[in-house]
Amino acid sequence: MSLQTGVSYFANGWPHHFERDLDDIRAHHCTYINHCFSENELVFARRRTSRFFQMTREAGLGCWATPWAVMGLFGGEQFSAFVPRNPEACQVLSTGQRAPAACPTALQTRQAMMYWIDAAIDMGADTIFWDEPHLYIPDWDDLHFAPDDALACYCPRCQDLFHTRYGGSLPPLLTPEFRRFRANIMVDFLAEMLAYASRKGAQNAITLLPVEEDASEALPWEDVAGLPGVNIFGTDPYWYLHAKDCRSYVSNQMRRTMQVCELRGLTPHFWAQGFGIPAGREAELETGFRLAVELGAESIAVWGMHGNAAWDAASDNPELVWKTVGRTFKALREQYGSS
Fold first, then answer.
1. pLDDT at position 213
2. What b/e readout covers 72-96, taking b as 16+ CB neighbours within 10 angstroms?
3. What is the pTM of this model?
4. Fewer CB under 10 Å: which end of the chain, C or N?
């Protein structure tokens, strides 16, 4: 086993600053960087992002690119430029509102996603990281755009597709049929995108939300992990964020991850929260990482560097968080092998 260790990277656009960050990241025993490649970077900072990717690889680190909140279909703190330009391709909520997120059944959505994939891989990304794919989740939206119980998607395409598959109209509530339908349209979208990225020579890493199977935002782990082109599979049990016990939450989610990965020969992956960590609880990071690796994780990462000090959701003691990450990555790589 050669343990891989990573960190997400965002909030900086200065190449001279990234040079220093590269040294810092390597000094904290990371083997790859997950670059948050948003629509904003795609449109306004492609040359700079390409340079960052090149610098990452020249430093001997793996170069991941994640579609950071692209089209509102993935995790991330960014707004979508696609949405206002393509209203007919947006999800429609049970309230009748157009959601600020693209519908995965729309041809424009798939074409735009392939355009993003082309850019990321052509610029030098060796791995595409599909982070928390989901239909629109109202209670994630701090602007309170829609009621928390609003559901997607009721666009004309989805209404026709549901009628074809189930012979009726889309229900106003989350029935078993509607739950399967929502999952299926996301899985179908991911299947096409993963296959496309794989054909272009990239690895695919995917993280699904650590929620119960009956949760409205859940995707079927077995179905997603079984898609052709998946190489790395995992989840992100952020125990600080969800007020969970570190040991039990990480253990339960890693066991789920291992069940999926061992059947298919996938690399088990684990994300830990580096933001919003209360003072005095930094040591739990080491507990979570170590437990994940002991249970089988071969790729672990933190979101993000320096305790996310560049954002409002910074940890109380960002530098202690970052120091804990570096110390833990070093110890685990020494214990479980490095290359």
1. 87
2. bbbbbebebbbbeebeebbbbbbee
3. 0.97
4. C
